[in-house]
Predict the 3D structure of the following.
Amino acid sequence: MDVASLLARRRMTRSFDGSPVDPAWLRGACETALLAPTAGHSAGVTLSVVGHERVDEYLAVATDPTWRARSSRYPGWSRAGALVLVSSRVSAYLERYAEPDKADAGLSERDAWPVPYWHGDAAMATMALLLLIEEAGLAAGLWGAFRNVEAVRHWAGLADDELFATVFVGRPDGHDRPSASLDRPVPTRAERVRRIG
Ligand SMILES: Cc1cc2nc3c(=O)[nH]c(=O)nc-3n(C[C@H](O)[C@H](O)[C@H](O)COP(=O)(O)O)c2cc1C
């Protein structure tokens, strides 16, 4: 399937059927996803695979009992066949951009970055992984990093990394309800492509 078709077909899935995802396949897909661009060849992104048997453990750390009791989507997420935690090591970028060929950029201090390239790299690798998952006939859902982030980092042993997102991977069970976000009126894709001059 060509890239345009994969992009058109890919949609976030939030309810899985509980079957495991082959860990060897997922590890290989993660390695392939890391062919994505990386600023200054910093290679600061890490993809951490969590097997099917530890999805519940992750959710116990990443969420709280109130959310689990109230969320109608929690059971569907908990049936994911595997997870991938996407993180990046900020120091890899600070060190790379302090090297002689990059020093003129003035980016050797964290606060100097108008756009943190480590998040850009993490997003690029994430998108590549989403397309590989789609190509394999599997499905994925994504959580941004906003809840219990420190606890997840600690649990995953990501001492020096910033968490970017968690990718839930699996097979849809057909009970997905589209996100309410999709009902929002937003500019069309055509309106978001513009020409300057
Ligand atoms: C950075 C980022 C964070 C996201 N966080 C969440 C999340 O926490 N929970 C969720 O259900 N979806 C999350 N999403 C998925 C979006 O809601 C979804 O991509 C959007 O509604 C468009 O739907 P589509 O990807 O199926 O086209 C996130 C997506 C991105 C790019």
